[in-house]
Amino acid sequence: MQESNLLDVGIVILDSGEISEEQKEDDGITKEIREAEARYISYHLRETMQKTSGWGSINVLPAESEIADVIVHGEIIESTGEELKLKISAKDSTGTQWFENTYRTQVTRRDYTRLEDQSDLAEIYQGMYNRIANDIYRYRKKIDDKQLTTIRNTSELKYAAALSPEIYSSYVTGNAAGEYTIIRLPAVDDPSLLRIRKIREREFLLVDTINEHYGSYYDQVHDTYGNWRKYYLLETLQRRKVEREAKLKKTLGAAAVVGSILMAVLGEGGSPGLVVAGVALYQDGANAAEEAVIHKEAIVELSESLQADVEPLVVEVDGEALELTGTLDEQYIQWRTLLIEIYEQDIGLPAEADDEPFSDA
Questions:
Q1: Residues of the chain with pLDDT under 70
Q2: Rounded to 5°, angle at Cα 171 from 169 and 174
Q3: CA angle centred on 354, ends 348 and 358, rounded to 5°
Q4: Distances from the Cα of 152 to the Cα of 2, 32, 109, 155, 301, angstroms
Q5: 19 closest CA partner among 89, 109, 80, 96
Q6: How far apart are CA 89 and CA 71, in angstroms?
Q7: pLDDT by residue (tens digit) across 143-200?
């Protein structure tokens, strides 16, 4: 396939979704854990897509950017050691929606046992990632060469218009629906466009650096996150079992006591032994309920353990500190603002005295 027809993909860090108070209290799920999962899932989708031919660069992005020809968005709807449910959508630079779909998969304790026999970086939900990657590529295969060229040109012109709206806003136009149309193309040797391409390449270098650190982060938390999901499931299953047994014992115990008392009231005799047995059974149920609380607390501890092991990374890019957390999108926007300032300096526009753009090193 010609390089000019390879689309660059940007996977925007997944939305971590809403967490109910019940999930926080009963399951130990926190916003920090969900954000850690969002980074992990986004990067693993990147790794899965890179095994499919037909793409240019594939990067995880802290925020949407015109450097990508195809943007993938997603949201975590549900994530436990037992179930993963994601909403995924993809669109290209022209604003054409490729698809939006909800993916769901469920695993068992036996699946985790089988996973232990595979490679260190095996993923329990790999089947879901494969389906997502295949759906994105399946839509890509429907696009002819002419439309591929249009998508790539639209990406470049949108990027140019973001940097230099006074020049390039007349080259591409968008409507309220988010659809973009090319009005005209600049000359091949347009000096302003050549400068913009250099700026765009600089942003690609920044994104490459960010993805290197996302990769390090992914490797760092892979085992911890995998174990957290596995033991979260085991604790959840045990808690369900104990809660069921507790409910049954308490119900049978209460029924035995009430039945014995009722028999005595009706003059049919009563069995003190039955009352004693019923009280004992009810107490066993209460004790089992307390055991369920212990398992719930174990789940909370597992969640806190994961949270402690996925502290954000602070990295430096050209002397600027970047913290890879949920606020990275804001810092990424600041870097993009800096790129605009670099472009303005390149074309001779005045820059603020305090501006410190990228060095050429």
A1: 1-4, 23-28, 115-121, 236-336, 338, 342, 345-361
A2: 65
A3: 65
A4: 13, 36, 45, 5, 48
A5: 80
A6: 8
A7: 999 999 999 999 999 999 988 888 899 999 999 999 999 999 999 889 989 989 988 8
Torsion angle, alpha carbons of 114, 42, 57, 218, to 10 = -70
Extract the tokens encoding 217.
């982060």
Each as own residue / partner, the long-range contacts of residues 272-281 (CB below 8 Å, 24 or more positions apart, any chain) are 277/253, 278/252, 278/253, 278/254, 279/253, 280/253, 281/249, 281/250, 281/252, 281/253, 281/256
Task: Round to whole Å and give the CA distance between 302 and 132.
Answer: 29
Closest CA to 169 of 177, 228, 138, 159: 159
Whether 335 and 320 have beta carbons less than 8 Å apart is answered as: yes
Q: What was the pLDDT predicted at 350?
A: 44
**What one-character DSSP code corresponds to residue 318?**
T
| Cα 90 from Cα 339, distance rounded (Å) | 26
CA distances, 255 to each of 50, 150, 161, 284, 286 (Å) = 61, 74, 75, 14, 15
255: which residues sit within 8 A by CB, 6+ positions away? Answer: 278
* Cα–Cα distance list, 57 to 97, 200, 262 (Å): 20, 13, 76
- pTM: predicted TM-score of the whole model, two decimal places: 0.74
List all residues 6 or more positions away from 331 whose beta carbon is below 8 Å from its beta carbon: 62, 322, 323
Sheet containing 83-92, strands listed edge to edge, beginning at the edge strand earlier in sequence = 55-61, 7-12, 70-79, 83-92, 97-106
CB 299 within 8 A of CB 235: yes
Locate 67 and state its tokens: 């450097």
